Structure formats: structure tokens, C-alpha cells
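STRUCTURE:
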């Protein structure tokens, strides 16, 4: 017969779970903001490994000695709560939004690379030209403005055009 208390009754004090989740979430958010935007775009295999390793590294600090389902639910609710709170704060107070949320960064203006942004995001010229080619642009002089977006993608406004170009999608055979 299952021990229902062990399954559903929290094995760790709820306040401790909440504090562990809060501190870990806020510290990881700060670390991700400091790491820059470029890393948020697409996940390669090393990125997936990094996510798994970070999750493994913080798991003991998040859960402590907890074992019940309720402990996990409380922890998940804490992380979701803080995500919603930060979104609400950024929406309500735009000045705080600049600290909480990433903003688009001007990467190219009138065909000239912004080397300061490239240095900050650790982007090489060849990485930028790859992104331009994905948008069907062979010459940087064709770009009026290009932004490194908060999700890590690059949006491009061509010279003499106002709409953005979508990256080319691979054709399915």
C-alpha cells in the first residue's frame, strides 16, 4: 500500500521551497541577462548539454531533501510565479523593463557593423554574414538596419524597403 503522506504531504517546509525557488530563479535570470542575447536564439547540441548540466547543478539547491509530488509542484509554481511577476513588473514599469527584459540591439546601421554590439555579444563578422545570407542578403550595404532581437534572432530592414525579411526556410523535398 502506498504511503500517501510521503507522496502528497510536503517533506520540506513550504517557505523553504519558495525561498529556494525564488533565489535560484532570480540568480539564474541575472546570470542569463549578463550572458547576453545572442545565446537565447537557437539551441545547438552544446546548448542542450549546458541546459541539462545547469539543471542538474541547481536541482539539489532547489529541492533540498524534498521527496513528495507537492514539493515539486510548489517549486514549479514558484518559478512560474516569478516569471509572471517579472513580466508584469516589466509591463507596468517600463523603466524597470530595461533591467528585466532584453532589448533589441542595433547591429547594423546604413550598411555598417556596430562593433560595440558585436563585441558585447561575442559575434564575429562571419557569423553576421551568415545571418545576412539566411535573409537573402549578400552585401552588407543592402542593409539599412539590422537588430539583434531579445530572442537571439536577427531582424533586418533592407535599404529602400520598410518591411523586414523573414529568414529563408529550408525546402522540404
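SEQUENCE:
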Amino acid at each position: 500500500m502506498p504511503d500517501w503522506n510521503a507522496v502528497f504531504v510536503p517533506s520540506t517546509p513550504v517557505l523553504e521551497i519558495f525561498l529556494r525557488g525564488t533565489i535560484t530563479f532570480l540568480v539564474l535570470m541575472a546570470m542569463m541577462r549578463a550572458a547576453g542575447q545572442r545565446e537565447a536564439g537557437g539551441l545547438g547540441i552544446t546548448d542542450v548539454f549546458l541546459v541539462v548540466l545547469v539543471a542538474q547543478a541547481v536541482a539539489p539547491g532547489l529541492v533540498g531533501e524534498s521527496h513528495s509530488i507537492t514539493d515539486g509542484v510548489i517549486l514549479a509554481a514558484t518559478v512560474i510565479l516569478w516569471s509572471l511577476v517579472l513580466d508584469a513588473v516589466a509591463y507596468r514599469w517600463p523603466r524597470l523593463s530595461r533591467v528585466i527584459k532584453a532589448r533589441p540591439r542595433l547591429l547594423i546601421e546604413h550598411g555598417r557593423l556596430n562593433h560595440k554590439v558585436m563585441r558585447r555579444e561575442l559575434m564575429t563578422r562571419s557569423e553576421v554574414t551568415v545571418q545576412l545570407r539566411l535573409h537573402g542578403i549578400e552585401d552588407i550595404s543592402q542593409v539599412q538596419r539590422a537588430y539583434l532581437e531579445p530572442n537571439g534572432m536577427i531582424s533586418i530592414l533592407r535599404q529602400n524597403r520598410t518591411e523586414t525579411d523573414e529568414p529563408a526556410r529550408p525546402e522540404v523535398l
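REMARK: Strands lie at 105-109, 112-113, 143-148, 154-158.
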